[in-house]
Amino acid sequence: MWLYKHPWRPTSSSFGYIPQSGIAGSGNSLFNFLRNNYTVSITAVPFYIPKTYFFKRRKYVFLHCWKSTLQFHLLKFKTTVIVIFSAVIIVVTGLFLLSLPHLHGVFEQVPAPWWTSPCPWPIMEATAFQSGTLYLVASFLAGPISELVPNLSFQVDLNTGLSEFSVTQRRLAHGWNEFVADNSEPVWKKYLDQFKNPLILLLLGSALVSVLTKEYEDAVSIAMAVLIVVTVAFIQEYRSEKSLEELSKLVPPECNCLREGKLQHLLARELVPGDVVSLSIGDRIPADIRLTEVTDLLVDESSFTGEAEPCSKTDSPLTGGGDLTTLSNIVFMGTLVQYGRGQGVVIGTGESSQFGEVFKMMQAEETPKTPLQKSMDRLGKQLTLFSFGIIGLIMLIGWLQGKQLLNMFTIGVSLAVAAIPEGLPIVVMVTLVLGVLRMAKKRVIVKKLPIVETLGCCSVLCSDKTGTLTANEMTVTQLVTSDGFHAEVSGVGYDGRGTVCLLPSKEVIKEFSNVSVGKLVEAGCVANNAVIRKNAVMGQPTEGALMALAMKMDLSDIKNSYVRKKEIPFSSEQKWMAVKCSLKTEDQEDIYFMKGALEEVIRYCTMYNNGGIPLPLTPQQRSFCLQEEKRMGSLGLRVLALASGPELGRLTFLGLVGIIDPPRAGVKEAVQVLSESGVSVKMITGDALETALAIGRNIGLCNGQLKAMSGEEVDSVEKGELADRVGKVSVFFRTSPKHKLKIIKALQESGAVVAMTGDGVNDAVALKSADIGITMGQTGTDVSKEAANMILVDDDFSAIMNAVEEGKGIFYNIKNFVRFQLSTSISALSLITLSTVFNLPSPLNAMQILWINIIMDGPPAQSLGVEPVDKDTLRQPPRSVGDTILSRALILKILMSAVVIISGTLFIFWKEMPEDRASTPRTTTMTFTCFVFFDLFNALTCRSQTKLIFEIGFLRNRMFLYSILGSILGQLAVIYIPLLQRVFQTENLGVLDLLFLTGLASSVFMLSELLKLYEKHCCGTQRVQTHHADV
């Protein structure tokens, strides 16, 4: 146990925190008070104990108190004696606990934290800054003093944050800032839950009847089959659960935390109470935080309170009461910073946060099923009703024919287990999840399973430019001052290496050797929130480029000459940001520095800089600036305007900087492949027309003339006309979030399935509205990650190709699996039905039917769901959203395979049946083996609906290969191992028998392959494409 020094000393008023029974009562009374109120952190102790240390050994807690351990400022000697005596009792009791393992954890009964409950009582809060240290004390008074809620109090240094030693102490006390899923249900219970299936219970009932009739071999056989079937189902469900758990670990949240005087980028799970956290626009709040510094901070708490309007936050102490969620100086884990910046101290982590209560409730809720799963559920129920009808008919006809009722009942139930595709939704889930995990290995994270289904339907991809199509590695390459000086900048990245040279003289500029250039660079440095550390930028890349420019001119320290008094943060609507500052060394009036889009910044300017002298901004000067912006934009540069002055509206225009943001590697190739596969790529950016067109041409958005549309045009066009026009436009420029939303809605109204990529706060609305929202893992803000359905971990645009390819492949694999399972179900049902109708012995017994069910729902079937995606899949056109799994073409193929399997199996059954029509072990063994071989050959051809097995390759899907070999070995074991012969009622077959059955069963494979060959070579290209879209 670790001691946290209290930042306050007890006063007479503080004694009210200790229940009177704990002071004046017996030692046991005080001990009970400590036991019920101490948690594993001293921060929960509601009174002061000097020189007390807490230890935790072998998970047992005891108190070690030395010298005068407790002083309560009581004047009476009798009370002091009682307190000391109580302390002795505590020590003795603590040592005694070491010998009582069954009392483990007696001190770890943690009361509910104060921030997880509404607080109707007044809040007394004291904040005091002493030598850079914040003493944060939150105390609550309510009702009887014995019902006191433990207060939170700790010492935090706002200038340096916590030390690593202190972090380690607090982590031992409070644990990691994360939630542990409640997996309280043991594995054995999950296994036993499989026996709740009514069909399984019926089979067990059949086994019980066999015991009562002294048919012990039948009872053992049925029991063994039930165990195998239940185990297969359990493994499927357990695998699905574990895969979903893996999905929850793919997107770890991050934060900026001050520790040991350095701002560090950490995983949010590493935070502990007392950490100083920096918040900026787009961040997700990583823990419950008491704000200590705020700049126009607006927080979206809609996920928490349900209110759509963002909440304005303050760092002022509170004196009123109310619901904790309404406190304006606290931000809560999981909410999002929509505007402004802030800093604060962590007061709640993990399950001790407000979100912890929500998480506990969330644990009780089941994960909703995807549309595809629901579709499979409906299909399964329809097939179940159909199967029950057929099975009931079989049992009725058998009974009327005088067959043994128990035998018919057992066969009927076994047939129900085999024919009803109860595992269909589970296998679909496993296939979806495994596909998502494969995407994760390719550095693409899919947050929601339904998106996997939608990926294959994507017909339009709208992309933000900066950070998505471009690398977001900004470098200033050109400068133009307001009085006409041109300069070029060498060097790339954020290491500060390079020079600034005047043109055409090539004179190297340092500091203010050229006043106009110096003032321009100074404004970019001061109106800046980025920090460059170890050649990496912490903050916006655009601001990082301006800081690197200042480093090249030895002006990076000029920012420290100013005291910032106010900041107006950047927003995509206003397209500029400004700071209000004053010089530290001079008593001068305040000065504003502004940067942003030229057309917005110049509106606030009345003067322009001419060698350090402000002159009136004339129309000619404005025209010169606009021409320079157009010239720089045509080179693909991002152009920023800078200005400074005593107040907004009376600024002095300083000039322009041109920033290059090169296209990402592989973007051009990805755009080309997506276009060939029927996905139209469109760029939506806030940049000027010239910059947007230059980037569009560089990445190959259009082979012919590039069509562009401005945000103003989007506003001016009628809704119906906009839906017709947006499909023909490749580039949208000077757009805001509302324009992006309008464009996406218009595309959706035209029938397109729209994917949207972006990484900024301004992209969040569009990401959420799109059918598929895609954001960047490294440069994407927490807001964009929250809104998106898919995250590109490495910010690699070309990874979208892999995602679309995988999405299409998963859908086709599910169709392959459905084809295999339904053709097997129909064959099994039809085989038993026909033999019963024609008054023939049952070709398969109950154990054999259950074995077929294991093959149908087991590894061979599941391996079809993980078939590697074919390389031609991406080039197939997007499928329609209305396409169903069971298309007409697929139903015909299912029926064709079923007819071949039924015909071949009945032929063997009829051929091996003796003249007296009696069922013999050889008859059932040959029929059973024939059906299983048919099943395996059918699985082989179901690997692809369009490609021949020689084109796919036998070894590409290793899991399928192993499952087929395992099924063959299992079938041979059933035939040749004596113990299994008695269970399955089989006998040995000769080599010629096996060769004959193999040749016959291969007919289903050969016929399917010939059909594929016919479709490929004889139906023409157009029909093949249509077939791809359908199948």
From TrEMBL:
SMART domains documented for this protein: Cation_ATPase_N
Gene Ontology MF annotations: ATP binding; ATP hydrolysis activity; metal ion binding; P-type calcium transporter activity; P-type manganese transporter activity
CDD domains noted in UniProt: P-type_ATPase_SPCA
Primary location: membrane
Entry membrane topology: Multi-pass membrane protein
EC number per UniProt: 7.2.2.10
Pfam families reported in the protein's UniProt record: Cation_ATPase, Cation_ATPase_C, Cation_ATPase_N, E1-E2_ATPase
Cation-transporting P-type ATPase N-terminal domain boundaries: 144-215
Subcellular location: Basolateral cell membrane; Golgi apparatus, trans-Golgi network membrane; Membrane
Mitochondrion among keywords: no
Biological process annotations from GO: mammary gland epithelium development; positive regulation of calcium ion import; protein localization to plasma membrane
Signal peptide region: none
Statement: the UniProt record of this protein carries the keyword Translocase: yes
Segments passing through the bilayer: 81-103, 123-143, 383-402, 408-437, 890-910, 922-940, 960-977, 989-1007
Subunit text: Interacts (via N-terminus) with ORAI1 (via N- and C-termini); this interaction regulates Ca(2+) influx at the plasma membrane.
Descriptive protein name: Calcium-transporting ATPase
Organism (species): Papio anubis (Olive baboon)
